Amino acid sequence: MNDICMPALSRRNFLTSLLATAVLPWATTSPGAAAPNVRQFRLRAATGTASLNPRSEQETGVWAYNKTVPGPELRVRQGDRLRIMVENGLAKETTVHWHGVRTPNAMDGVPHLTQRPIATGDSFAYEFDALDAGTFWYHPHQRSFEQVDRGLYGALVIEEANPIPVDRDLVWVLDDWRLTHQGDASDDFGHPHDAAHNGRMGNIVTINGQVPETFEVRRGERIRLRLINAANARIFGLDFRDHQPVVIALDGQPVTPHSQEAGRIVLGPAMRADIVLDCTGRPGERFTIEDTFYTGLEYNLLTIAYQDEPLREAVPDWPLELPANPLAEPDFANALRHEVLFTGGMMGAMVMQEMGLATASGGTVDGMGAMMRGGGIWLVNGVAAEGHVLEPMLALPRGKSCVLAMTNATAWHHPIHLHGHSFRVISRDGAPTSHREWRDTVLMAPRERIEIAFVADNPGDWMFHCHILEHQASGMTSVIRVA
Ligand code: C2O
Ligand code: CU
Fold it and tell me: How much is the pTM?
């Protein structure tokens, strides 16, 4: 990791970041406040190759940050200031979005909305403070359905000032790839059939850029696993079977430690879970982790292999609870309420009929039909977004508490993501959630209704979209303005 930390910047980059700093009011420290610790990083996006499967000789052409898939793990401390110089060595325009991080709007990395795309050969200096501790990730927001899929993504870990004690703190970036027989990425990006169904599903699954085989652990060990789903479309449902992982954070935000029903951890695209895995097996034992999300398509993700030497006889009895992040608590008594209706996709008309919504705004758009007519496949409150310049769907007064009551009137799952904020998930189908968890991306099942609540305290125009990247690109995207 150290090779990407660049304390000695070249003169040109140094000047660029000075200039960037000078025009950003939030980057100036108020008198009396301790100057933040500045962490400098450099990310260069370029084409390269990766051997994704250790059992095959094949090399896959990828687009990568600093020549690795995933890109370098950026690890900082809560309260640090990040200064990240992104260089575009691709033949295409790009940007970087810091998923889940509450950055100032100008640092959010959305082309044409918060910045001009970074042209080939150009650089952009991103700078923001690490307000919240947690597990985040970064990825382009320009043609994401192609650029993320080709390998442009990486983990951003913001450590707590006093992290909970564990023996190992590891990141698993999950992804899948659609490879041809030759091992190349299949170039049918954004295919309309994928867009109208559940998105681009791959045919191999990787963890940290490698088809996984075994994960070696020792009896008595306590591991913090930071799971990140970087896939375009695949939802993971990880069943740890004989182990009982404890969920301690979701989308970077601490949650009351709890075990998932039947040990299954569900992660839609872009979602994260921090889990604590206590290794209770015996030396020499082996266990599998199975992905059971799609019925009929279950597979073994990897094998947990116990080494011969135990670390200790019993797992430690250390605290699991993470300190809360400084998020504003929504005030329900005075919250503004807005309805958000998601429609479209294959079989969408049928679902709307079933839900009694056939005449509501959104119309009865069936994916393939709409596509044939050249329209968007997915709609948010009746609008299928096209192009980059989006009129805000909602304007929220700065500082106001808001409840979004969302309805998924489609036949498909959608991980819905709001930029610039974290929100509490308040209810699902009318029933209060058990943990009122903070998230930045919430997975909606077909026909599900979910209420989320947050304080609109970060000014700017923020994307609000489905993180199945083919859905995002075919209409399921909108903008929420906080002013
Ligand atoms: Cu992970 Cu709009 O993005
Ligand atoms: Cu979607």
Answer: 0.91
